[in-house]
Amino acid sequence: MKTSLVLTLIGRDRPGLVSALAARASAAGANWMESRLAQLAGQFAGVVRLEVEEGDAARLEAALRGLEAEGLRLAIEHAAAAGAAGARRMVRLGLVGHDRPGIVRDISAVLARHGVSIEELETACESAPMSSEPLFRADALLDVPASVSLEAVRGDLEALANELMVDLSLDERG
């Protein structure tokens, strides 16, 4: 039977980090299932899910711990089996507006009140094309339970978007 290990990692960015991680995973018989990796302010950070035979999980974990001697900090969790979540739908949220503290806090609070889970979130601050003022962008994939009114979520998010003075889109994926 297979099991998943979910890793979070961070360390000073340098060439070869992904290669070192992949080599250790492969040597232990693991399959690289999914990941989100990025260089942020000179640090390499990421989340990786590896799948391996249960009998090889301890060997994989030991091999991965060897990367800590190379300056990579790791947290390793054994993934729980996914339970039946009921009918759900995936919705894409897009947001753009002038940057200010609290945008992610405010948006995520509305989503949490409705029981909406954030499956993916990507944010960036960049210069606006004409004014060069800081512009905040967010793109999220939301997991909305079938029992939750998408119109109620949309209404609360649009009210908040007006208050924050940001443009917001919410589109159900087909």
From TrEMBL:
<protein>
    <submittedName>
        <fullName>Glycine cleavage system protein R</fullName>
    </submittedName>
</protein>
<dbReference type="Pfam" id="PF13740">
    <property type="entry name" value="ACT_6"/>
</dbReference>
<dbReference type="InterPro" id="IPR045865">
    <property type="entry name" value="ACT-like_dom_sf"/>
</dbReference>
<dbReference type="InterPro" id="IPR050990">
    <property type="entry name" value="UPF0237/GcvR_regulator"/>
</dbReference>
<dbReference type="InterPro" id="IPR002912">
    <property type="entry name" value="ACT_dom"/>
</dbReference>
<dbReference type="InterPro" id="IPR016867">
    <property type="entry name" value="GcvR"/>
</dbReference>
<dbReference type="Pfam" id="PF01842">
    <property type="entry name" value="ACT"/>
</dbReference>
<feature type="domain" description="ACT">
    <location>
        <begin position="92"/>
        <end position="173"/>
    </location>
</feature>
